[in-house]
TrEMBL record:
Compartments reported by the entry: Membrane
Main localization, broad class: membrane
The keyword Membrane is annotated on this UniProt entry: yes
GO-annotated cellular components: membrane
Superkingdom per UniProt: Eukaryota
Biased composition (Basic and acidic residues): 418-436
Region Disordered, annotated ranges: 413-436
GO BP terms in the entry: monoatomic anion transport
Alphabetically ordered keywords of this record: Membrane, Transmembrane, Transmembrane helix
CDD domains: MFS_SLC17 (cd17318)
Protein name: Permease of the major facilitator superfamily
């Protein structure tokens, strides 16, 4: 949402104060969200795995809504540093969202419906981006001015939270809105333990951190974060400064790539489920196929985009739309694979990979400040995009080589009590043998 403020350079007709911040400050504001975002990822994943994600999601959305409501006054009273503070706080509490959502999916998503349900959940972020891009300009030009963008976002989060209190549940056993038959079906097909059992299962940290399939997901998450956030935050500036194409001026044009990503994500999820449920390809092969589409497809499109001649609006928008659209396949690639490996610890795995991945999200806008000395130099911008292309290619190659679609042995590690009982039994047997 800070992009709305960043784009304003003079006072508008309604008297609202606007700001003229240079590119370095803009990049700092854009990246500040991730400074907070990475902090609570792993703790949130562990907590959601043990106690469920409903309350964490509620806290995340309410606090995000409240911070949105104070952004306008913070910008006026505290300038860009106060906006950074708001962004850090927003990132801190939104950082608990994805691990909690993954924990919910681990409890609620049957294996045969996992790709589709994961896409429904996570593609919502793209739908939100599309809506925000189309509404932000309209709201900013209205008599309510740019602060209305944040007020609408804040009120929406709070209203959603009310609905979540009523209808949300961490697992089927806690839900008041499903039948006994549906609950039984979900619990027998999701592959996860019930909530009470999860509280007793220790997190198998050593097994997780020495698992090559887990590392394939981790590296893919890092590659995705760097590549996608470079596209999201920097591509409009590149197209404006180098190609002479200002897509920011048209909300619908800016939103087109994300509309494509949103629509294609459902196409990809339907195809993925068809392949798996009809035994056309294995779950592992399906994840690898769509992760390749999501990574190597955008890498090739991004390479082509780097060499488009200046002034070609249609060609530039088409290539950007293809680049972002193909990335929608990652929802049924690495992003849902945490649950394939371990439904019980999906939230913890997501906390680790999303935390690490978003370190690379911080690098996306900041790398431009370091690498690009002349914003109008195509050669400087290509260095930035070549870095993204390399990450896309190498991280997916590792995913192809080492990803597994099988639930790992450490999903249900042997409890400490069982081990202790076995040791006691062994000692008794030895004692008995000695006496005999």
């Amino acid at each position: 949402m800070s992009v709305t403020i960043l784009a304003m350079t003079k006072e508008n007709n309604y008297g609202y104060q606007v700001f003229d911040w240079n590119k370095t400050i803009q990049d700092t504001i854009l990246s500040s969200f991730f400074w907070g975002y990475i902090v609570l990822q792993i703790p949130a994943g562990v907590f959601a795995g043990r106690f469920g994600g409903k309350m964490l999601i509620l806290v995340s959305m309410i606090v995000t809504g409240l911070i949105n409501l104070i952004v306008p006054i913070s910008a006026v009273k505290g300038d860009w540093m106060a906006v950074c503070g708001c962004r850090i706080g927003m990132g801190l509490f939104q950082g608990i969202l994805y691990p909690s959502l993954h924990g919910l999916l681990g409890q609620w998503a049957p294996i045969t419906e996992r790709s589709r349900m994961g896409t429904f959940v996570y593609s919502g972020s793209q739908l939100g981006t599309v809506i925000e891009m189309m509404l932000a300009g309209v709201l900013s030009d209205s008599k309510f001015g740019w602060p209305s963008v944040y007020y609408v976002a804040g009120i929406t989060c709070i209203l959603w939270s009310v609905l979540w209190i009523i209808f949300g549940a961490s697992n089927p056993a806690e839900s008041k809105w499903i039948s006994k038959e549906e609950r039984k079906y979900i619990e027998s097909n999701a592959g996860s333990s019930n909530a009470n059992e999860n509280k007793k299962i220790p997190v198998p940290w050593k097994s997780i951190l020495t698992s090559l399939p887990f590392w394939s997901i981790l590296l893919s998450h890092c590659g995705q974060s760097l590549g996608f956030w470079t596209l999201l935050t920097e591509m409009p500036s590149y197209m404006d400064k180098v190609l002479g194409v200002n897509i920011k001026s048209t909300g619908y044009l800016s939103a087109l790539p994300y509309v494509a990503m949103y629509i294609l994500s459902f196409v990809f999820s339907w195809i993925a489920e068809y392949l798996v449920n009809n035994n056309v390809t294995s779950l592992s092969s399906t994840r690898k196929i769509f992760n390749t589409i999501a990574f190597w497809g955008p890498a090739a499109s991004l390479l082509a985009l780097c060499y488009i001649p200046a002034g070609h609006l249609t060609l530039a928008v088409v290539m950007l739309t293809i680049t972002v659209g193909l990335n929608g396949a990652h929802y049924v690639g690495f992003l849902i694979s945490h649950i394939d490996l371990s439904p019980n610890f999906a939230s913890t795995l997501m906390g680790i990979t999303n935390g690490c991945g978003n370190i690379f999200s911080i690098m996306a806008p900041l790398s431009v400040s370091v690498v690009v000395s002349d914003e109008k130099s195509a050669a400087d911008w290509r260095k930035v995009f070549f870095i993204s292309i390399a990450f896309y290619f190498l991280s997916n190659l590792f995913f192809i080589l080492f990803m597994s679609g099988n639930v790992q042995d450490w999903n249900e590690p042997q409890s400490k009590n069982t081990i202790e009982e076995g040791e006691k039994k062994s000692k008794k047997e030895k004692t008995g043998e000695h006496k005999f």
